[in-house]
Design goal:
The chain is mainly beta and 481 residues long. 8% of the residues lie in helices and 42% in strands. The chain folds into 2 domains: 5-147, no CATH class; 158-385, YVTN repeat-like/Quinoprotein amine dehydrogenase (Methylamine Dehydrogenase, Chain H), CATH 2.130.10.10.
Length: 481
């Protein structure tokens, strides 16, 4: 077997940086501080890639020989004597940590500056080994050692497929008829809409009736969940055993998180630091760290979880067993205490607050309240037909019924205090809260529209038509260009 010096050097560097794995997905604090001080709008992705709102991208280079007691001071740049805020092509810090700016060459290919402009100490470093570099990046031959085991995908590889625009709506003659005026709280928002029979995710601006474009998935979507200040999407497709992390701004799939089982449902904490995922064929709940986009752990549980929901204080999960209707709670502390609570058939939604589990029964068209300790039903309330979704807000349960009605249940005195009748026919399906407002969107799986409901007035303030039939809707609290 033959070895050359280059291969040995690569293996040595990979081994070295494997031993200091903290660098793999997290930049040193002093580097983050220096970047944010000069570039406050910079975004540092979970794999170390640095991006700016204008599209500028920097690749981090980990030093092979880091200096002690670094402060994060910039000591070398190319062009020389530039501040980080001036976006030089090479930045070297006092620890030998470096940033290389992604640029375009004369042929329009993305690359980095000529190697003669890059100090030797930088060329001995290594890119983070879990980083997704921009597809199609050209690395000069004498810098290939910096790649280690990192793979650069070609520009047209599958890595880009989900976030490629596949259908762009022609608005040449229809601009006047496709625009709407959204209510103030919906301004500059974006809707991600999936349908029951398409692999596409429709990207619909809140001021439009039609998709701006569609995003292509490998199969029918199981869920599309915005996370990370709406910079990323967690995407799961039917028949796949992994969750993909899509970087919206860079328009790439930045990571695949393998679960070995097909993801089915997801719930995310309010601060969006963790995601809990139920799968189809395992008695387990998977936990994803959304700051590092990594699988944190697999929690073994009783039954096969379905209808998973977080308690209002996020101290526990509640779910039903998809096989027999048993309902369980799961403490989200170190104990992971898993308790049987009740058995109910045809449950469409669960909620957990304090010692009570609230469940919607499609069989009896009821809200049922179960005491966790008694493990028994303590109250039931008749609802409109086919209750399908509910949400907790301001000490009330807002219960959506497919018969186009929202029933409002007061948790203080266990009373049905008001009803909101939704206009039109069809089959109402989902409540989607609008961040930092009293609004909620209500979807319909038969009519091509959604309603905007003001929960402070308990009235429908707007009905917005679309050109797609909505199976699921997620709301981005930002405008996607």
């Amino acid at each position: 077997m033959k070895f050359n010096i280059k291969n040995i050097a690569v293996m040595a560097l990979v081994y070295c940086f494997s031993a200091i794995g903290a660098y793999a997905t997290k930049l040193p604090p002093y580097i983050v501080h220096s970047i944010k001080a000069d570039l406050p709008k910079a975004s540092i992705r979970f794999d170390g890639l640095v991006t700016l709102p204008d599209g500028t991208v920097y690749l981090p280079v980990l030093p092979s020989n880091p200096k002690k007691n670094p402060t994060g001071k910039v000591v070398t740049t190319y062009p020389a004597n530039k501040k980080l805020s001036q976006l030089p092509e090479v930045v070297v810090f006092d620890s030998n940590f470096a940033l290389l700016k992604v640029i375009k060459n004369a042929k329009g290919q993305i690359t980095v500056t000529d190697t003669k402009n890059i100090p030797f100490i930088v060329k001995t470093g290594l890119f983070p080994q879990d980083m997704l570099v921009p597809p199609g990046l050209i690395i000069p031959e004498d810098m290939k050692i910096m790649m280690g085991d990192l793979v650069i995908n070609v520009a047209d590889s599958r890595i880009n497929d989900i976030l490629k625009e596949t259908t762009i709506v022609d608005k040449t003659n229809t601009q006047k008829t496709t625009k709407i005026i959204p209510v103030a709280e919906m301004k500059d928002k974006t809707l991600l809409v999936t349908t029951l029979d398409s692999k596409m995710v429709n990207v619909i601006p809140s001021d439009s009736l039609v998709p701006k474009y569609t995003l292509r998935m490998e199969n029918l979507p199981k869920f599309v969940q915005p996370v990370g200040h709406d910079k990323y999407l967690l995407v799961a497709a039917a028949g796949k055993t992994y969750v993909e992390v899509a970087d919206i701004d860079q328009e790439v799939i930045a990571k695949k998180i393998d679960l070995s089982y097909q993801p089915a449902e997801i719930v995310v904490t309010q601060d969006k630091s963790r995601a809990y995922i139920a799968v189809l064929d395992s008695q387990a709940i998977f936990v994803i760290d959304l700051k590092n986009m990594a699988l944190l752990e697999k929690i073994k549980v009783k039954g096969y979880p379905k209808n998973i929901a977080l308690s209002d204080d996020e101290s526990a999960l509640v779910y039903s067993d998809r096989n027999n209707g048993d309902i369980y709670t799961l403490a989200l502390d170190e104990s992971y205490l898993n308790k049987y609570v009740f058995n109910a058939s045809n449950v469409s939604k669960l909620a957990l607050r304090g010692n009570n589990v609230y469940l919607l029964s499609r069989t009896t068209n009821e809200l049922q309240v179960v005491d966790n300790d008694l493990k028994d039903l303590i109250y039931s309330q008749e609802l409109a037909s086919k209750p399908v979704d509910m949400m907790l807000k301001n000490n009330k349960l807002y219960i959506l019924c497919a018969s186009n009605e929202i029933d409002i249940f007061n948790l203080e005195d266990f009373s049905l205090c008001e009803k909101i009748q939704l206009p039109g026919g069809g089959f109402s399906k989902k409540l989607v809260p609008v961040p930092k407002s009293n609004l909620v969107l209500v979807t319909n799986v038969l009519n091509k529209n959604y309603h905007v409901v003001d929960l402070s007035k308990n009235t429908v303030v707007q009905t917005v038509p679309t050109n797609v039939t909505i199976s699921d809707l997620q709301l981005l609290n930002r405008k996607v260009e």
